[in-house]
Amino acid sequence: MEIGNLNIIDGVLLAPLAGVSNRPFRVLAIKSGASITYSEMVSSEGIIRHQQRTWDIMKFQSDEQPIGIQLFGANPEVMKQAAQITSEEFHPDIIDINFGCPVRKVVNKNGGAAVLKDFVLTEEIIKATVEGAGEIPVTIKIRTGWEDNNPAYLKIGEIAQSCGVQAITLHARSRSKGFSGKADWSAIKELKRAVDIPVIGNGDIFSPQDAKRMFDETGCDAVMIGRAALGNPFIFKQIRHYLQIGELLKTPSVEEKIDMAHLHAKLMVEEYGEAKGVMMMRRYLGWYVKGFKGASELRPLLFQVKSVSDITHVFNDYINQSSVINRSDI
Length: 330
What we know:
CATH class of the largest domain: Alpha Beta
Structural class: alpha/beta
Largest sheet: 9 strands, parallel
Distance between the termini: 35 Å
Number of domains: 2
Helix content: 40-55%
Number of helices: 14
CATH superfamily of the largest domain: Aldolase class I
CATH topology of the largest domain: TIM Barrel
CATH architecture of the largest domain: Alpha-Beta Barrel
Radius of gyration: 20 Å
Number of strands: 11
Shape: globular
């Protein structure tokens, strides 16, 4: 898959996840085999107003690349200015437009998936963003439409391609579905047949087998992983290995997951300082121990940690109290 000057092999991408895909999370994803990472969703209004918190979200380093910065907004001129600032000040590998976020506070401002209801506005936003981005390739992330009974993805694909978008990610659910129900992968297949630019499939990939099946069933050029990466950066390496070799890697042991959680905590502290970094790390710790024997008793302890040494102490106690730590405990 080619996006601008990027040549992506075994495309397994980390999805942009609001409040989650910060620098430490992206670093772990790249270390674990992600082909591309994305920033959290960034407000175009915040960019042009030079809001410090917004600009902080956009910062990245080389160990997170290739990286896309994802913008959202409903004003074409603002999106153009935001794309220009993003291109000139941050130099990401990709600028992505969010047309898929179903969250109420975003769609109430006519951003995210709300744009899917207005093809004219969609085209204006895309044209403006492509112009503002300059040499940086522009991609978009969409849902199938606002409602199940009013699909928009084929029309949006046509518009995007004609306006210079260089790849489309389709989360195969409508906005109304949120994350419920089953993703309709047939929509990804249809979109792939309808456009000549790369199509990235997203939705209900939780295992290497799921990823392979999506490639086989839809013909997509790459897959994007979101919820399945929470507490499980191993999934990128697992998927790429399965695509290349056809064999499943051994499920990470409890010790390996704890080691990864410790590394994640270290990166969080380096980025945010110990007090804030550990506080932010609590939710990730809850994800890391998903499936652990006694996880329901372990999580409340992890949600109270205030330092890296607290994290180490809780995990050491857990291991010492477990009679056997092996795959049967997961």
